[in-house]
Amino acid sequence: MRVLAAMSGGVDSAVAAARAVDAGHDVTGVHLALSRNPASYRSGARGCCTIEDSNDARRAADVIGIPFYVWDLSERFHEDVVENFLDTYAAGQTPNPCLRCNEKIKFAAVLERGLALGFDAVATGHYAVLREGADGVEMHRSVDAAKDQSYVLGVLDQHQLRHSLFPLGGSEKTDVRAEAAERGLLVADKPDSHDICFIADGDTGGWLREKLGERATHERGEIVDDATGEVLGQHAGSYGFTIGQRKGLRLGTPAPDGKPRFVLDIEPVSGTVRVGPRERLAVQRLTADKPRWCGAAPSGPLECTVQLRAHGEEHRAVVRVEGERVDVELLDHASGIAPGQAVVVYDATRVVGSATITATERVEASA
């Protein structure tokens, strides 16, 4: 097959490209330029799309012996990922930009262009396993549970899965680094990226204040006790808070029991941020929309597990689907879940699909 290897400049994508070559594929490496202003690329390895990353990807391609190109997808990245991130926060929700990037950029824009150029598949360094099943290609969790990335890939549909390769899904990360060193790849010891790639200094709150301060309907608002309605403090923008947040509330009045308070709800129109005790964060039901199914949608109640955060724990659940609406009953209650996050549905290790959380129902105090 003709394979397009998406090379971020990290160790995983470099080894994935090399393994694709070893498998006999005709491989071409491509690095995605996602910044509209190259001067805004930060130095170091805080994110995944820096100038240094581009150079590292090019050097890895040279060692592997494959052609290499840089594709400018900055405009589409800004519209589909950055603007979505801002809009979601402005609406009082919590987005996952890596999930959106996989859906809109790596497995949509890149795949579309690759297929148009005559490539058969896109290979990436994601940790997930693809298997041929009775009803099509199935995606399963990685062998390395600590590195499993099936959650952020839960947005992929059957068409995208059929044109994807994940060469690292059956490997442990330590083995991948050792292999990179054996191959002479200079990125063998390069640290993994963890931050949001388009926030230069890693200060998400400061970046949001800079970008959303002028567009917010209410720049200032009140922090209110959820149980009593007492006003506990003021804030400069509800977009600076997330459900489950404890630090940075700056409350002048301590709780009667002396325990910390957490953000329970965000009302972006009024600017009200409601806080309360940890136990009030427990959620028993979710409603979600915009489902993306890896194969066929569940036809009836599905007893399954769901994951609600990247690298988060699994929760036993019952999922019911009606058109674009997904209802999730959590048999294992979850804590601090916010609208905007993704719920990814699993049948054992197989990814069934994902949807975007729109509302949560908290556990009653008497439960």
From TrEMBL:
What are the site positions for Interaction with tRNA?
126, 341
Which GO MF term does the entry hold, naming one? tRNA-uridine 2-sulfurtransferase activity
Q: What is its EC number?
A: 2.8.1.13
Concerning Pfam families, the annotation shows:
tRNA_Me_trans, tRNA_Me_trans_C, tRNA_Me_trans_M
The UniProt entry, under NCBIfam families, shows: PRK00143.1, trmU
Give the protein's function: Catalyzes the 2-thiolation of uridine at the wobble position (U34) of tRNA, leading to the formation of s(2)U34.
Q: Which residues form the active site?
A: 101, 197
Write down the chemical reaction(s) this protein catalyses. Answer: S-sulfanyl-L-cysteinyl-[protein] + uridine(34) in tRNA + AH2 + ATP = 2-thiouridine(34) in tRNA + L-cysteinyl-[protein] + A + AMP + diphosphate + H(+)
Q: Does the keyword Transmembrane helix apply?
A: no
User: Main subcellular localization, coarse class?
Assistant: cytoplasm
Q: Which GO terms describe its biological process?
A: tRNA wobble position uridine thiolation
The name of this protein is tRNA-specific 2-thiouridylase MnmA
Q: Which top EC class applies here? A: transferase
- Boundaries of every tRNA-specific 2-thiouridylase MnmA-like central domain copy: 212-276
Q: What family does the Swiss-Prot or TrEMBL record give for this protein?
A: Belongs to the MnmA/TRMU family.
The listed locations are: Cytoplasm
Organism superkingdom: Bacteria
Where is the segment annotated Interaction with tRNA? Answer: 147-149
Cellular component annotations (GO), alphabetically ordered: cytoplasm
Occurrences of domain tRNA-specific 2-thiouridylase MnmA-like C-terminal (ranges): 284-357
The entry's ATP-binding residues are 6-13, 32, 125
Kindly state which keywords UniProt assigns to this record, in alphabetical order.
ATP-binding, Cytoplasm, Disulfide bond, Nucleotide-binding, RNA-binding, Transferase, tRNA processing, tRNA-binding
